[in-house]
Write a structure and sequence with these properties.
The complex is a heterodimer. By secondary structure, chain A is of the alpha+beta class. Chain A has two domains: 283 residues, no CATH class; 143 residues, no CATH class. Helices cover 51% and strands 18% of the residues of chain A. In chain A, the strands form five sheets. A six-stranded antiparallel beta sheet of chain A has the order 4-3-6-15-10-11. In chain A, β13 and β14 form a beta hairpin. In chain A, α3 runs parallel beside α6, α6 runs antiparallel to α9 and α11 packs across α13. The radius of gyration of chain A is 29 Å and the shape is globular. Chain B is of the alpha/beta class. Chain B has two domains: 225 residues, P-loop containing nucleotide triphosphate hydrolases (Rossmann fold), CATH 3.40.50.300; 68 residues, no CATH class. Chain B is 32% helix and 27% strand. Chain B is built from nine helices and twelve strands. In chain B, the strands form three sheets. A six-stranded mixed beta sheet of chain B has the order 5-6-7-3-8-9, with helices on both faces. In chain B, strands 2-1-4 form a three-stranded antiparallel beta sheet, covered by helices on one side. A three-stranded antiparallel beta sheet of chain B has the order 10-12-11, covered by helices on one side. In chain B, β6, α5 and β7 form a beta-alpha-beta unit. The two termini of chain B are 31 Å apart. The chains are: A alpha+beta, B alpha/beta. The interface between A and B is medium-sized, with 29 and 34 residues.
Chain lengths: 566, 318
């Protein structure tokens, strides 16, 4: 069960936003540079700024691959001779003894796999990040401190070549480290996982659907019933009522069917058959104890989303009692025998010809059958499982995700090191990493609430901004009480307004490290998705989005820096 | 014919400021001078006079507060000019984890030299600076003198037109100093321009064609070494050793011409000359030792075995 709901990621709108932000920041920086030039040197200053910018563009487009590669190779030799690869020793030590503490025969097979995969991927991240951070943040400042850079910049080397060469060098070193550790980690997992759990060592390929609800009056709703338990993640439907959770899937084609072993109930023979495999992890909320020996009963209905009333069918076999905290697997045959409600005649429905829409959409409606018991679910709790891919597919995609994160850390670290000394550059990059990872959600929430309160008249910013919050804390006011109108309230709200508007802009330049959280897919037994958030395309886009601005910033910082300034 | 200027410095001023933009030190004040093609130019001055600042401004490591610099017609911050220059910093700030071959190969690649050319030049330069025996050792294992030598080699890897040398002989033994001075003269004979700064006067005197003397960031003197060192008010005669009578006769001749003999002495060699003679003769005659305060005879010009008298007179030149 995933702890997040993968959202679809649209590349082109994201590219548009990126271009907009890049152009806006470039214009703002250029305006400030020209004003600075005008103030310090008059029109000659403006001319100098202009020629500096033009020369910068020339320097960036005329990067010499030969010189850049020379600096890249220097970076490799430096890392090797300064023993950066000692990280392998730490890695080896961890893996030599990890097996002692992770193997637990009392665990279920899928849990064991989860523990091993989670451990390996977390260890990879924790070992590679310090290497990336320290190498990238200390390289250029050390060169400046030891003045080795002085002999380099007095050769025909463009500062852009130094920045790019260093970036490629550090990325290369991290790639080697990660590749070796990733391969070792893979074989370690395959060896450590006990034979009985080997079947769980796959990359499941799910099709997640969109989730909406129908209430007991049959009206559509975005969310189900709030039972006061984990409200943000799961919504509930009440049993034995018309309430339904409706999952709409896209891309449901016969290819989505999986080969499963079926036992003939009459002859007892087993054979392989193509079935549509639906997996779910529901949670029950009981308002009375009921029969605790079994789970709540659930039934699936299948329908064409374009005309659900006419096409709705229920597989009589798809009524089952859920098992909480475990996967509930239903293999739906292509041909379903249904009884016509009106005529009482039996007929056969072909799932793909009679139910699934022409463009491959299928609606699965979930009903709970036990009265006064509630069934909770989120988007990722029910999915169609396509034929599995090898475990290596998901594993190495997750490693690729870690690699993309280290690339971003290197790019940020090298950029910071062009204008700050080693310790400051490290702190700065680390701060971006911390803000961009655990605090990102909070920052986004603050800024989204603020933007919603500005753009929509019916939304108010509960509790106000930081200054208003401080005032409320000091005055022991709850967030819903209105502040007394007056000059002080206006001042407080204006300051908060400026801060939150600034925050809404600043979040564009703080990378969202949450997009690299691909290892959760793998550790939970899924393949890593391509165009979801989080997903591979999103992670690649995030890294690439910061690459060009960072090269620009790094180049200009180094270009306008007096290396010998006292 | 007016000599061609390869370096033009006009009204160059450098003020170091603190973080808040307040003036900290004025390192250079309206410096203007030209360096001509093919000459060895010396920047002289005591510590803090601005000679290293001038060099760093020329190299683009610092930006001028005011004024203009042109090197081969290009600005100091133009990387294109770097193709034609070589630079030996005051300390050899090279990558200490590289060995001599790797160092020269790395810097050669920055000039876009082909692999074979890099190899050829590296071999030649390593031999030139006498580091053949240590070509595979990492620079962190080098002595200071060896580091200076490899620093000199990297400054020459691109066969530059202009070579900037900051205290080129610092850290070198007398033999090494002599080698560097010979090398500078060889570069001059090849038509290269050398700009060096040092506070070792003898060094500058030996190799420089023209010198500029800086003090407190200002240019105090500029001219050829001969012009600057020649004393127009004195005449110096140098002869082989002569008896006392002859000295009296010379005095009489000088008196007839209205001049006065100011002193008679045996000339002294520089310590550097004595040292070099001693080392070279010791190498030629192993086993010779300094015994009972007797200095073994050396073979240099005007050496201790062949004393001479120098008569100096004031008045008109002879």
């Amino acid at each position: 069960m995933l702890t997040f709901n993968p959202q679809p990621f649209e590349f082109l709108p994201a590219l548009g936003t990126w271009l907009l932000v890049l152009v806006a920041f470039t214009v703002v920086v250029a305006v400030f540079a020209f004003i600075g030039g005008l103030l310090t040197g008059g029109f000659a200053g403006v001319r100098r700024v202009f020629s500096g910018l033009v020369r910068g563009v020339v320097d960036l487009v005329s990067i010499s691959p030969g010189r850049t590669w020379a600096i890249t190779q220097l970076t490799f030799i430096e890392a090797r001779r300064r023993k950066a690869f000692l990280v392998f020793v730490v890695f080896a030590l961890v893996f030599m003894f990890a097996g002692w503490f992770l193997t637990g025969s009392e665990q279920r097979a899928d849990e064991q796999v989860k523990v091993f995969v989670g451990f390996v991927l977390t260890t990879l991240s924790l070992l590679i990040l310090p290497v990336a951070l320290l190498l990238s943040c200390w390289g250029i400042p050390e060169d400046i401190r030891r003045r080795s850079l002085h002999t380099v910049v007095t050769k025909p080397v463009r500062r852009s070549e130094i920045v790019v060469g260093r970036m490629i060098g550090y990325v290369g070193i991290n790639t080697i480290v990660l590749l070796v550790m990733g391969l070792v980690g893979y074989f370690w997992i395959v060896r450590q996982v006990p034979d009985e759990a080997k079947s769980a060592l796959v990359s499941r390929v799910p099709i997640f659907g969109d989730l909406r609800f129908i209430d007991r009056e049959g009206k559509p709703k975005r969310e189900g019933v709030n039972v006061g338990d984990i409200w943000q993640h799961r919504s509930y439907i009440e049993g034995a009522t018309p309430e339904r959770a409706i999952f709409t899937f896209d891309g449901v084609t016969p290819d989505a069917m999986t080969s499963v072993v079926v036992k003939d109930p009459e002859t007892g023979e087993t054979r392989e058959e193509e079935r549509l495999r639906i997996e779910s992890t529901f949670e029950a909320f009981r308002t009375y104890k009921g029969d605790m020996s079994r789970g709540i009963y659930v039934q699936y209905y299948f329908a064409n989303p374009d005309d659900p009333e006419k096409t709705r069918v229920a597989d009589p076999n798809a009524i089952f009692a859920i098992e909480e905290f475990k996967l509930n697997v239903q293999n739906i045959p292509r041909k379903i025998q249904v009884v016509d409600d009106e005529t009482g005649a039996e007929r056969t429905v072909d799932l793909f010809e009679d139910v699934v829409s022409d463009d491959g959409r299928l609606q699965v409606e979930v009903a709970a059958l036990d009265g006064a018991q509630y069934l909770g679910m989120a988007k990722a709790d029910l999915f169609i499982r396509k034929p599995d891919r090898p475990f290596a597919s998901g594993y190495f995609k997750a490693v690729f995700g870690i690699w993309l994160m280290t690339v971003l850390v290197v790019v940020l670290g090298v950029t910071a090191s062009t204008f700050a000394k080693g310790p400051i550059a490290t702190l700065l990059t680390l701060t971006l990493l911390v803000i961009g990872s655990p605090f990102r959600g909070f920052m986004d929430e603050l800024s989204n609430n603020y933007l919603a309160s500005v753009t929509r008249s019916n939304v108010t910013l509960e509790g106000g901004g930081p200054l208003e919050s401080i005032v409320r804390i000091v005055k022991h006011m709850n967030p819903t009480t209105e502040l007394a109108p007056g000059v002080s309230t206006t001042v407080i709200q204006s300051v908060d307004h400026v801060f939150l508007a600034g925050l809404s802009l600043v979040r564009y330049v703080i990378p969202d490290f949450g997009v690299y959280n691909l290892s959760e897919y793998t550790s939970k037994g899924y393949d890593v998705f391509w165009s979801t958030d989080p997903g591979l395309l999103r992670a690649m886009a995030m890294t690439l989005a910061f690459l060009l601005p960072c090269i620009l910033l790094g180049y200009y910082s180094l270009r306008f820096r007096e290396l010998e300034s006292k | 014919m007016q000599p061609e200027s390869v370096i033009e410095i006009r009204n160059l001023t450098k003020v170091y400021r603190d973080f808040w933009g307040r003036k900290k030190v004025q390192a250079l004040n309206s410096l203007s001078l030209d360096v001509h093609r093919g000459e060895v130019f010396g920047l002289l001055g005591p510590n803090g006079s601005g000679k290293t600042t001038t060099l760093k401004l020329l190299l683009g490591l610092l930006f001028p507060t005011e004024g203009e610099i042109r090197i081969l017609g290009k600005t100091a911050t133009d990387v294109e000019k770097n193709k034609y220059i070589g630079y030996l910093p005051e300390e050899s700030y090279l990558y200490r984890f590289l060995n001599a071959e790797e160092t020269l190969d790395f810097y050669g690649r920055l000039f876009g030299l082909s692999s074979s050319e890099r190899k050829t030049r590296s071999d030649r330069l390593i031999k030139l600076v006498k580091l053949d025996h240590a070509r595979r050792r990492q620079l962190k294992e080098y002595s200071k003198g060896m580091t200076r030598r490899i620093g000199l080699a990297q400054a020459l890897i691109n066969d530059p037109e202009i070579i900037f040398l900051d205290e080129p002989t610092s850290g070198l033994d007398p033999n090494g100093r002599r080698d560097v001075k010979d090398l500078i003269l060889q570069l001059k004979s090849e038509g290269k321009t050398v700009v060096m700064c040092s506070h070792l006067l003898a060094e500058i005197e030996d190799v420089c064609d023209r010198v500029a003397i800086l003090y407190n960031g200002e240019l105090k003197l500029l001219g050829t070494v001969d012009e600057l060192l020649q004393s127009q008010g004195e005449t110096q005669l140098r002869t082989t050793a002569i008896p006392q009578d002859a000295i009296r006769e010379v005095e009489a001749v000088l008196a007839r011409h209205g001049a006065k003999l100011e002193g008679v002495s045996h000339p002294k060699r520089t310590l550097e000359d004595l040292f070099l003679d001693t080392v070279s003769s010791s190498a030629a005659r192993p086993g010779q030792r300094f015994v009972d305060g007797k200095v073994p005879p050396t073979t240099g010009d005007g050496g201790a075995a062949e004393p001479a008298v120098t008569a100096a007179s004031s008045g008109s030149r002879t």
